[in-house]
Amino acid sequence: MAEQIIFFNKNQADISDESVVATASQGDDYTDYALNRKNDSAWITTGSVDSDNTYFEIDYVDEKTITDILLIKHNFKAFTIQYYDGSYKDFSTPINETNNTDDSTHFTFNSVSTTKIKLIVTGTQTADQDKYLYQFISTTQIGQLNAYPEIKQPTLSRNRKKQKMLSGKLNILESVGAFSTTLKVKVLSSDADLTIIENLYSANEGFLVWLCGGDESQFKNERMGYRMEDIYLMKCVDEWTPEYYKGMYQRGMKIDIKLGEVVD
Asked: Cys-Cys with 139: which of 8, 120, 221, 262 at CB 3.0–4.6 Å?
């Protein structure tokens, strides 16, 4: 079953929060790589085996509220995740995987306030392989759309700059770049969806946009921007213009949201 676009608040363990501390029983020097929003660096162990029961722990220091955890690009087959409340406890929906085959996973549960989260990996998809995790995201959900907007002009920019050489050939400089897109709905009348959109425009900091909504199989191909691993910290680039369709107040609103990836 297809899942629609989901919006989350900024990762409570984001690298920009200097008070957050990530530690691990193995590969401790690389823990911050799982918090930097990048899919080209990761927390990874060296010489680890399944029986090590390797842990990865987040210490928020200050109490944080979370409803969702996403593990982006990993190789865990068997693992548990718990939150700290005087001792480590299960979420309302326990996260205790024993035969996971996905390389990106999403868990949602009743809201908890906590200062720590612990992930314990007891098995990898290839036995005794070193563990790796590209992104650890703990957050609260802003909402999931009911509507299916057009995803217009999705752009994975490399910020290319061209310089013509004396030979006539081009020298092209490029950077890591950023993602941007526009979401369009001709007429949107869902009160829940409109509330989500108002919250996006009201947000004072970036929010996470997951275009696949947890189901990349709804797309014919697994393409960049629509995969489980593609989740971006974004903000609304344009202004909120709540215009009713053709001035007919009972028809709903025309939606045209321009989103751009941000630093914070």
From this structure: 8
